[in-house]
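My current task is to audit a protein record that another person submitted. My question to you is simply how this chain folds and whether the tokens agree. This is what I was given:
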Amino acid sequence: MHFYLATSFIFPRSLRLRLFTLCFIATHLPLLAYLGWGFASGRIALAEFVLLTLATVVGTGIALLGIGALLNPIHALAQTLHRDGEAPALPEVGDVIHTLYAGVQRAASVTRERMDDLHQAAHEDPLTGIANRRGFLAHIDALPDDRRRGCIAIIDIDYFKRVNDLLGHEEGDRVLASFATRLSALVRRVDMVARWGGEEFAIFFQDCIEDEASWSLARIASRMRSEPIGRVQDRPISFSAGVCRWTGGDLDVALRRADDALYEAKQSGRDRVCRAAPILQEL
């Protein structure tokens, strides 16, 4: 772009003539040097020099015609984008440099949008709008070392199969979405809520001890009873949860321990929170 601006004084209204001038000078420098040497030494063959110069002029013109033919589709695309209001307002819209700039900007914008869409699809649960398992793990993995500690909770909606069997899958989807909203609304902003799979959810309570995480889950369970997101056989929909302290070691171990604690909560009658044994940090 700097070179383009520096040469704008050469035929400022015609890029093709400017390209011709630059190409002519670049390709004829050897001839000009030969002409200077020939006149200085008296060894120039004028007829051959003129013939060779004319041949290079014709060759330069043919090359520029080829360049113009290659750039015409891009120029037409830029004019279309400009008419549709999709190209930035730039001076000399017909100028091929601006055409290329507009095309690159457009392509970059489309590429960014597609990458964002792919990233969202890969890390977000489409039904609930919260993170999926991959997004949950990626979020924790991206945290700095001093934030990779807290509590992991695995949560399961109690008797969810009855919701689908008795009320239908549409009601089941509504319950899942409502439960995700309830969880997200009742935890801290630094905590991470995700749909783990099926009717299971996961929460990462960042920089949180087990007492705090258990109290937070008990508060959510109480709200589920007083303000249920739905009922099955006249009973409020509840959940069971397993909580495990994580001090920055192997995350898979913490997840397995939390899942074991969830199993204990379900075996003990559901609608409760159970804690797993603490995990020692692995250095």
